[in-house]
Amino acid sequence: MLRNPRFIVFDVGVPALFYILFTKVMNQGMPASFNKTYLVSMAIYATLLSSIITVANNVLSDTDQSYLRFIDVSPVSRPTYYTAMGVILLGLTVIEIAIIELIAKFYVGVSMGIGNWLAILVLATVASISLMVFGVSLAFCGSGTVVNLMVNVIVFPVAILSGLWWPLSLMPNWAQTVGKLLPTYQTSVIVNEVINKTTISLNAIGGEIVWLLLAATLLFAVQKIQRTKTRK
């Protein structure tokens, strides 16, 4: 993580600034529950940034800087290295969400039970695993220019369409239909249902599982293509 500190600052700073902006400045006419709902959205947005942008760039930099060659001649295997990277990234995700929660608690004034704070922290972190797998997959899709283009084309439309920046109900019907299929929307539904103590949607849980399977399939496919190109 210390090799790319700018990504850490970006992953934490952007959602935190968005949260402060929309809850302290542009909050006219918002319902009382908005501060809590938008906390969930920005927590998930933080996981989206770190899981796609940071992961893809870290994996890509390992290849570009020949760091994997160093791993290959060291006592540490690639699976061990990437497992350790995954653990660190999950830890980073926990820190990101915790910082946003601290801002919500002590600066914005959101009041919730400890169970709800932990629910947001744990559920958003666990749900980010499928996004991380997608991030790894993107790193194998081409050069740095191509990967960064793909990352930006994916992350920000996903954030908008899944209702993380503003309510999904304000968008056209076709955008709402697409947005409700996205993993970040499914995570938002699950987290909000848990903290509001309503019935948890089995469709949302099923959607998360489907996205995890799709992410794993994509990673397997791009790695297979990469190995085929290497042999040639």
Produce a short descriptive summary.
The chain has 232 residues and is mainly alpha-helical.
Offer a few descriptive terms.
232 residues, mainly alpha, 9 helices, 79% helix
Shape descriptor reads globular
- Total number of helices: 9
Q: SSE order in H/E notation?
A: HHHHHHHHH
Helix content: over 70%
Return Rg in Å. 18 Å
How much strand?
under 5%
How many DSSP-defined strands?
0
**N-to-C CA distance:** 33 Å
Largest sheet: none
Low-pLDDT runs of 5+ residues are: none
Mean pLDDT: 88
Q: Look at the helices and sheets and give the structural class.
A: mainly alpha
Protein architecture, described:
Helices cover 79% and strands 0% of the residues. It has helices at residues 5-25, 34-64, 67-72, 78-108, 114-139, 144-161, 173-179, 183-195, 202-231. Helix 1 (5-25) runs parallel beside helix 4 (78-108). The two termini are 33 Å apart.
Write the layout of secondary structure elements.
Elements: H1 5-25, H2 34-64, H3 67-72, H4 78-108, H5 114-139, H6 144-161, H7 173-179, H8 183-195, H9 202-231
